[in-house]
Every structure is written in structure tokens, then in C-alpha cells.
Amino acid sequence: MLDAAASAAMTAGTAMGQPPVERRRRLTPAALAVTNEKVPSAYSPIVIAGAVRIADFALIAFVGLSLYFGYVAPRSGFQWEYVASIFGMTLATVISFQAADIYDVEVFRGQLKQMTRMISAWAFVFLLFIGASFFAKLGGEVSRLWLGAFFLVGLTALIAERLILRTLVRDWARDGRLDRRTVIVGSDQNGEQLVEALNKQDDSDIHVLGVFDDRNDNRALEACAGSPKLGKVDDIVEFARRTRVDLVLFALPISAETRILEMLKKLWVLPVDIRLSAHTNKLRFRPRAYSYLGDVPTLDVFEAPITDWDLVMKWLFDRVVGGICLLLALPVMALVALAIKLDSPGPVLFRQKRFGFNNERIDVFKFRSLYHHQADPTASKVVTKDDPRVTRVGRFIRKTSLDELPQLFNVVFKGNLSLVGPRPHAVQGKLQSRLFDEAVDGYFARHRVKPGITGWAQINGWRGEIDNEEKIQKRVEFDLYYIENWSVLFDLYILLKTPLALLTKNENAY
């Protein structure tokens, strides 16, 4: 009913010459209270642990080499054996720390457990080195002063590093950057048991925001173990687009298969982890079939794409390669800007609202290709072949996609676009009279990753005008394939194929 009213309002606004009204689902007051809270971006525990490993390696190697070049080398000359020993001991230390299980964010928060394990592992590495030197009959050739200084200075440096790390991790935890913001599906007895099981765990990173349930009878509780009911399952998509949600956890029993499948059809478009809780199920699988939230067993259904180190690699790829592309493109962009200015009055650039990551509305920069007085910032009318709104220069830059070059500023400076990803469609993009999400099931699943200047669909010929259902379906199909099969090499392949695709597969670009 609400969606129908919003669509009617949008149509009426367009007919009166006003900008169309964007459809937004209305949330409950309880849900709005959560979405209005200021939430910082999350830090990945996996990336933090990996960064600490790298920091440990760099710190230990630096201490060992500094002591060697500062004391041993000036007296005995340079010896490769010392350098090899330092890197060998450094690697052995990181491996020992891993075996001692101290590369975990929960351990970083503590002090006693972390310090005792670290000191024990550090001492073990030196005992191992001394034992190896003894059996190799190299004990007399190793400087005892250097070895003792390496042990003491290295240990002091590691303790100082861990104290700083402990402070940082505690600050991040207090700010909510390490929390997994979770919503529960199922506001009944099962949901209450699940919330209680999650809340009673010590040092848990699960932060339950609330519960959602479609039922209006007495089976649906208004709160589960203190967590309020925030709305219906249909509200979760809009809720997750207004605030950070990391995990959707079903408290429904596996026997409710039909209900779960219907809900998953609505929720899989979100860039979040989706799991089924198995804490009340009598049917038990092998332990390796489960992933655990503390002591609570769960079954994975969907995982958020491009997370942890993959996200770091994609960020680096966009900034480094995007910066190089921008520098190389600047002369061409200057010539295009001059041609636009000489061809027709008006600004050289224009901004257009597009769908970004998780349906976030972003401003995308493009070279102006339409006459300024006929500009269409919402792209409510598709540009077609021989469209009179397109300027002479505009026709060329649209055919060659040179109008997209300013989007490199989005990639390098604003960070709301990637070099490679699903193309960001205009928020009012339509197939005939239907918005794209009404024409294709699962359309918004394209937005589970950041959009890109070029993409897998584009280099396969699915670009330009969308005048039939096959074109938008193929775009979505190729975009979903890209998301499921992403890698840095895949991005590089698409980027290298893009110039050739622009020359040979531009029949739909007007």
C-alpha cells in the first residue's frame, strides 16, 4: 500500500514537471531511533590481526638489524649469517606468536594473558636459536652481548607495542568499530533464547540492534531479552540502508523452510552476512558444518562480498591504479573540456545522482553531453539514438565513453566509486515505465559492492541504452557474476579489456 502510494506520488510529480519523489519505505519509530544514532565505520578484526603480524615482523627485524649494524658489524665486518639469523628468528617469532594464539582481537584487549603468552613465545625462540647454535658449533661465533641486547630490547619494544595496541583496540571497541551489528529475525521464544545466549557471552563482539518479525499474533513478542521489535522483515532492507548492519541472524527453526526461503529472497540483496541459528535445532550436523558466534552454532547462508583483506586490496587498486589513470587522462580531459566549452554554452561538468554501495545515493561527475537547458540530472528520460538533446561533441564523447573520465575524481578523491564494478545507474532509471528494480528480480544485489567506471557487463557489450528487458537482465546477470568471482586480477583484466570494448562494442551507446 505504501509503495503504491509512493509510486503514485512519483508519477504525479513527474506529470507536473517537478522532480520525481524517491520511494523510501517507512520505518517504525523504534527502528528510526536506531538509524538516527551516529555509527562509525567498522574495522575488520582479520585485517587488524594481519596488520599486527606485519608490525611484529617489522619491529623485531628492525631491532635485530639496528643492534647488529650498530655494534657487531663495525667490529667484525658484515656477515650474511647474522642477517639470515635475524630474519629467521623474526619469522620464528611470528609463527610462535600465532601458535600461542595471541593474534586475536579479543586477546589484544586483555593484558595478563597477552603478555605472558608473548614473553613465553619470545623466550622459546631464543632458546631455540641458542640450541641450534650449540649443535651447529656456532656458539663461539655469535656475539653474546648482541644476543642478550636483542632479547631485552626486542622484548621491551614488543611490550610497548602491545600496550599501545591494547589502548587502540579498547578505544575502537568503545566506539563500536569492532562490533558486529546484528539484527535477529524471529520475535518469539526462539528469538528470546538466541538473544539471551548472545548477550551472556563475555567479550562478545555481537551487538544486537533489535528483532524483526512479520507475525502480528501473540507469538510475536514486542521485545526479546531486552532487544526491541523494530518492524517486519520487509523493513530490514531499508533499515540496513540507513544504518550499519553486519549480520542478519535467523532465529527460526530449520523446519520453517518455506518462511525462511521467502525472507531470504528479500534479504540476499544486502551486503551483509546472513546466517541461520542452530541453537534450538534438534537436527545436528558435523561440527565443521557450523560457524560459531561464541558458543552459538550457526549455518552460513550468504556472506558479504569483498571484505577484510580483499577490501584493502581493492581500495589500494582503486587509489594507486586510479591515480595513474587520472594523471594519464588529464591531457585528454583538458581537450574534451575545451571542445565542450566551444561547442555549446554551459558548464563543462555536471553531477548526477546515482545508486552507490548498498543503495547509497552518490553524486557522479561526468562531462556534459546534453545542451545545458535540456539537462536531465535524474536521467528520467533515456538518451536514445539521434536524441536532439545531445550536442555534437556530446555525441562523440558518449560513443567513446570519454564523458565518463571525470568519474576518476570520484574514484581517487571521493572514494564512492571503484575503477571496476557494476555501473552506477541513475536513481530514476527506467525500462519503459518501470524502474529497474521493478523490472528485474534481485536488481539491488548489484549494489552489494561499490559501483565502478567500467565493469564485466560493459566489456561484454551490455552498455548504453536500455530499451528492452533482456538488456537490463543481462547487465544484472553479468554484474552478479563479477561480484561472486571478484579478484584483483579479474579487475585488472576488465580494465585492460575496456579500451578495446569501447571501440568494438559501442552499438548501444548514444
Key phrases:
single chain, alpha/beta, Rossmann fold, two-stranded antiparallel ribbon, 50% helix, 12% strand, flat
What does this structure look like?
The protein has 510 residues and is of the alpha/beta class. It has four domains: 1-30, no CATH class; 45-175, no CATH class; 179-302, NAD(P)-binding Rossmann-like Domain (Rossmann fold, 3-Layer(aba) Sandwich), CATH 3.40.50; 308-504, no CATH class. Helix content is 50%, strand content 12%. The chain is built from 17 helices and 14 strands. The chain has helices at residues 2-15, 29-35, 45-76, 80-99, 105-109, 112-135, 144-175, 189-199, 235-242, 257-267, 308-343, 392-399, 407-414, 436-439, 456-459, 469-484, 488-504; strands at 180-185, 206-212, 223-224, 227-231, 247-250, 273-277, 291-293, 296-302, 349-355, 361-367, 418-420, 430-431, 434-435, 452-454. An eight-stranded mixed sheet has the order 3-4-2-1-5-6-8-7. Strands 9-10 form a two-stranded antiparallel sheet. Strands 11-14 form a two-stranded parallel sheet. Helix 11 crosses helix 13 (407-414). It is flat. The model is unreliable at 1-22 (pLDDT under 50).
